[in-house]
Specification:
By secondary structure, the chain is of the alpha/beta class. It contains 20 helices and 18 strands. The radius of gyration is 30 Å and the shape is elongated. The two termini are 46 Å apart. Bound molecules: adenosine-5'-triphosphate. This is Acetoacetate metabolism regulatory protein AtoC.
Length: 476
């Protein structure tokens, strides 16, 4: 890391000593200045000193400044070059920008403009560096071996990821909510040749029907009432990378038709636009709905289904991969211990048994939340015990009586599931003092979904007399 006191270094390449002196005077308080009077000296200094920024005159004795610019850019794409041009050479300035100059300044310079242009070029360079570093970190984080699980089901997933990551084939990931579909989509991306390119995730269920098309394909200014400016859609943003379409079963018939066209032709038009835009995007889709069934019922286009279902990956629910449960629980606990720099803590034997027996309706996401709570409640304890786990996880007798009633035909499956859900939601609400946002976080669902489930199951707030306020309306 560079120390904040270290000055950035600026190389001035200009044959006129007078110009170099005035540039130096303006910049010296903030930067360390290196100087060169011709192209060769400039390139030598650049190679030897590795400055952070170059100010380069377009007219140099015997050499064209643009040729020097090309050499500089080919040797270091990260170092910004600002061109110094005569007042009349607008065309040269444009050519320079095309060749990758960060900016240009016309002589004679305005002192303030000079400072601004130099500062701006250096801060966008710093930003570019940061993005590169972050991308590299993300690549490491989502390398597929970071998916936790040793069960047969997960091993099959790993093998498939390895087989298909590096092709452009469309992949459909299915599985219940919270089983790790988005994580698998990322693993596909970060194990492919596209790993340095964008990974864009779009949840098709989270957007109202009216917005989804503009979100996907973008729109031209004025194409509808709210379209006050041109907007680039996710397809364009994901170009050369991967577009992850979550909850694809929630797309309307019209959007399904448009998506099919993009998948077939690899091109589309923005809403209100006429120009066809070609894209190279790898599509990974996911759903927790039964698409085959939706096709049978006419709710999902059959042709689109076959297009996206070229390769399918099914993520089994957590309850069907019991051996992954202790592994995942220890992983999430270790992660929290490290984040909070707390002393080592482990699960007691009985707590681990409770975790293993529990059916995990919210899958891995639910587990992450429950371990988070247990971690908080176990402050100062050397072990996580049953006491640190939610009551519902231990209410074996209640869940077995629901199961017995269902299997004996005394209760429908639907009713038993609702009863079970009702108890979990009530438990979460009690634990969070009825603060719905916190309860929703605990359950790993949105507040909107929690409110919807509470309404469906008839769960109200605890009776607090007349002071009870109505629930705030749920926004679309
Ligand atoms: N095998 C795994 N190893 C480690 N973490 C996991 C694993 N599976 C899921 N997770 C974690 O569980 C949480 C939920 O995963 P994810 O969002 O990928 O699920 P999903 O199936 O896409 O859910 P939904 O259908 O609700 O969108 C995330 O925080 C994810 O990091």
């Amino acid at each position: 890391m560079e120390s904040p006191a270290m000055k950035k270094r600026v190389l001035l390449i200009d044959d006129e000593a007078r110009v170099r002196t005035s540039l130096k005077m303006v910049l010296e308080p903030n930067y360390e200045i290196l100087q060169a009077a011709d192209a060769q000296e400039g390139l030598d200094t650049f190679r030897k000193e590795g400055p952070d920024l170059v100010l380069l005159d377009v007219v140099l004795p015997g050499t064209d400044g643009l040729a020097v610019l090309e050499t500089l850019r080919s040797e270091s794409r990260m170092t910004p070059v600002i061109m110094l041009t005569g007042t009349k050479s607008v065309k040269t300035a444009v050519d320079a920008m095309k060749l990758g100059a960060a900016d240009y300044l016309s002589k004679p310079f305005d002192v303030e403009e000079l400072r601004i242009v130099v500062d701006r070029a250096l801060s966008s360079q710093a930003l570019e560096r940061e993005v590169k570093q972050l991308r590299a970190q993300v690549v490491q984080r989502y390398a597929f071996h970071n998916l936790i699980g040793k069960s047969q089901g997960m091993q099959e997933i790993y093998a498939k990821i390895e087989q298909v990551a590096d092709s452009r084939t469309t992949v459909l990931i299915t599985g219940e909510s919270g089983t790790g579909k988005e994580l698998v989509a990322k693993a596909l991306h970060y194990n492919s040749g596209r790993r340095e390119r964008p990974f864009i995730a779009l949840n098709c269920a989270a957007l109202p029907e009216t917005l989804i098309e503009s979100e996907l394909f973008g729109h031209e200014k004025g194409s509808f009432t709210d379209a006050t400016a041109r907007r680039v859609g996710q397809f364009e943003l994901a170009n050369t990378g991967t577009l992850f379409l979550d909850e694809i079963g929630d797309l309307s018939a019209m959007t399904q038709a448009k998506l099919l066209r993009v998948l077939q032709e690899r091109e589309f038009t923005r809403i209100g636009g006429v120009q066809s835009i070609k894209v190279d995007v790898r599509i990974v889709a996911a759903t927790n709905r039964n698409l085959e069934d939706m096709v049978r019922k006419g709710q999902f286009r059959e042709d689109l289904y076959y297009r996206i279902n070229v390769i399918s990956l099914f993520l089994p629910p957590l309850r069907e991969r019991g051996e992954d449960i202790p592994l995942l629980a220890k992983h999430f606990l270790a992660k929290r211990v490290e984040e909070e720099k707390r002393p080592h803590i482990e699960f007691g034997k009985e707590a681990l048994e409770v975790l293993t027996r529990y059916p995990w309706p919210g899958n891995v996401r639910e587990m992450e939340n429950i371990i988070e709570q247990a971690f908080i409640w176990s402050q100062n304890c050397p072990q996580i015990t049953q006491e640190h786990l939610p009551t519902i996880m231990k209410s074996d007798s209640r869940s077995s009586s629901l199961r017995d009633d269902t299997l004996a035909g005394r209760m429908s499956l639907e009713k038993a599931v609702m009863e079970f859900e009702r108890e979990i939601i009530l438990d979460a609400l009690k634990r969070t003092n009825y603060v719905q946002t916190h309860a929703a976080n605990l359950l790993g669902i949105s507040r909107r979904m929690l409110k919807y489930r509470m309404d469906t199951l008839g769960i109200g707030r605890p009776d607090s007399g007349n002071s009870q306020e109505p629930d705030p309306p749920v926004q679309e």
